């Protein structure tokens, strides 16, 4: 199973990714988590990524694409993967197409989580109190939302044209959202 999980910041991608990945027995590959791990370890990749993440900007495509390519080449991704937060730009879509074609497989589905604007902001501000993520301040949240609308939302149409999009209501309890995703994906052919 090769899946993409998309949605605006705060829609629940990271939250749902692990449940969905476990359900299908594939690794959850979160670009945000990989960047954050590199930031906390102080690697050259982390130093580079931090500049962009703290401002709510996207990390440059070349850097992100190289990182995902390396991760997908690892043996645990041979039988499939769930991508959380990638692709986010058209250049990343094209790169991912090449990566998947290279494996001889195809993309099975793109799950798009939707959520009310007020709820998105409330969730991220609530997380700011508990997790202390540098990019969960009001200004940076606003910039992340803007860049999502400019760069990432248009990708939904690209995947919709390919018949891959499953739009899922991301409002309500976490387990209800998980149930909706499973219902949508359990019926697709692999
Ligand atoms: P991400 O880590 O992907 O950040 P995000 O969009 O905020 O999603 P996240 O998964 O963390 O939050 P979620 O919606 O699950 O990216 C961070 C940064 O990394 C980007 O801004 C960018 O700089 C960089 N980056 C990452 N990928 C990139 C790429 N491909 N190209 C370039 N740059 C890239 O959850 C948010 C909160 O809501 C949580 O606190 C959660 O507990 C809560 N929540 C979730 N579901 C809920 C529910 N049903 N009810 C109540 N609360 C819920």
Q: How would you characterize the overall build of this protein?
A:
With 190 residues, this protein is of the alpha/beta class. 58% of the residues lie in helices and 12% in strands. It has a five-stranded parallel β-sheet with strand order 2-3-1-4-5, with helices on both faces. Helix 1 crosses helix 8 and helix 2 crosses helix 3 (44-53). It is globular and about 40 Å long. The model has no long low-confidence stretch (mean pLDDT 95). Bound molecules: BIS(adenosine)-5'-tetraphosphate. The site of BIS(adenosine)-5'-tetraphosphate (B4P) has 27 residues, from helix 1, helix 2, helix 3, helix 6 and helix 8. ATP binds at residues 10-15, 127, 172. This is Adenylate kinase.
- For the record, give the distance between the C-alpha atoms at the N and C termini, rounded to a whole number: 6 Å
- What portion of residues belong to β-strands? 5-15%
Total helical elements? 8
Give the H and E element order.
Answer: EHEHHHEHEHHEH
Summarize the amount of helix as a percent range.
Answer: 55-70%
Main location: cytoplasm
Binding site for AMP: 31, 36, 57-59, 85-88, 92, 133, 144
Pathway: Purine metabolism; AMP biosynthesis via salvage pathway; AMP from ADP: step 1/1
Function: Catalyzes the reversible transfer of the terminal phosphate group between ATP and AMP. Plays an important role in cellular energy homeostasis and in adenine nucleotide metabolism.
